[in-house]
Amino acid sequence: MCTAATYKTKCHYFGRNLDYHISYGESVVVTPRNHPFEFRRMGRLDHHYALIGMATLAGDVPLYFDATNEKGLSMAGLNFPKNACYKPEIEGKDNIAPFEFIPWILGKCACVKEARPLLDRINLLAEPFSEQLPLAPLHWIIADRDEAIVVEQMQDGLKVYDNPIGVLTNNPPFDYHLHNLNNYLNVTADVPVSRFAPDYVLERHSLGMGSMGLPGDMSSPSRFVRAAFTKLNSFSGEDESGSVSQFFHILESVAQPRGCTCVGEGEYEYTLYTSCVNTDAGVFYYTTYENGQINAVDMRREDLDGNRPVSYPLVRGQHFNVQN
């Protein structure tokens, strides 16, 4: 399970929580413009936009969980079990394997508007990367500073939804999550007004009572509502420090501690990492479960005209700032 979000102050920010029970050895990977992408059915892309994001490197192949390109277009794949439906090859379509989807879109497109025509031609192919890395059932959020969309390929075809909230979690399909927000129209960040009965006035006894009814469990629908409420009511300064800190707080509102979501005997889903990209500046920030310090990798400090991916291992050990 996972949560992705967008956030805009002076700059635009994009990121996600990756919630899972095991790690795939992910690292922060910068893919320069001249590193060739070899697609299983669509040939070779020798020159493309540079990317930065979280990926597992399989040799020289970056398998991105989430990424942003040098133009500020961002994309993340989130778990979508039992609903994601990949197809056999279809003649006349752009047949793209799910692990190729992020580089296919981000390598070619500078904004969501440019991505839409490519999505009209996409068929997400039922083809794994390898026996060791099988197909993952996913749906995707694609966002720039002006708009966001969600892409879901299900049994009845590929669907593209406008995403005015700028948030994505997991099951059910995205149209359910948007409709479900109507169940929380009375939730507010403001001081609530007593509406219980016309002749019986109730008194507030705590701050935050306007948000009573906001779900607090770990399920995907509840995380969607909570992340949407937190993001849409967030307030921060427009400086980089305040904006980045606020973004991490938004995703902390739906982070999963180890032990609260059991996936099997002795195994628990938890938030392996949280990412936040300043999509205007190309700076990728992250924290890990073991290390709450915000770390950063700046893609523009790399040779973006190079031809080999550059990888930065995650800082996982906790850092303590001892003051005495």
Main pleated sheet: 8 strands, antiparallel
Tell me, rounded to a whole number, the average pLDDT.
96
> What pattern of helices and strands is seen along the backbone?
EEEEEEEEEHHEEEEEHHHEEEEEE
Look at the helices and sheets and give the structural class: alpha+beta
Instruction: Give the number of helices.
Output: 5
Give the CA-based shape: globular
Q: What percent of residues are in strands?
A: 25-35%
Roughly how many Å apart are the termini?
40 Å
Which range best describes the helical content: under 10%, 10-25%, 25-40%, 40-55%, 55-70% or over 70%?
Answer: 10-25%
Count of DSSP E strands?
20
Query: Residue ranges: pLDDT <50 for 5 or more in a row?
Result: none
Radius of gyration: 20 Å
Strand order of the largest sheet: 13-12-11-8-7-6-3-20
Question: TL;DR of this structure?
Answer:
The chain has 324 residues and is of the alpha+beta class. The protein has helices at 101-108, 112-120, 174-180, 220-232, 240-252; strands at residues 2-8, 12-20, 27-31, 37-39, 43-45, 51-58, 61-69, 74-79, 94-96, 122-124, 138-143, 148-154, 157-162, 167-168, 262-264, 267-268, 270-278, 283-288, 295-298, 310-313. The radius of gyration is 20 Å and the shape is globular.
